[in-house]
Sequence to fold (77 residues):
Amino acid sequence: MESSKVVVGVLGGIAIGAIAGILFAPAKGCKTRKRIMNQGKNYADELKDKFESLYEEITDKYNEVVSETKEMIADNK
Fold:
């Protein structure tokens, strides 16, 4: 769980840094808003992929534990 907190913290820091860089860049408001929207969408997609990967990993481990438990119960009968 500790590594997932680090990943979320790093991604959050990157997002804040990118937004701050865009906001302080000398560009027109409409261009800046489009850039923020695009960056936000990219980060959201990346975060979604990370969470899906984590969900799949947890699901696999859960299924493995359930399977091992069923085998142990069957062996003890």
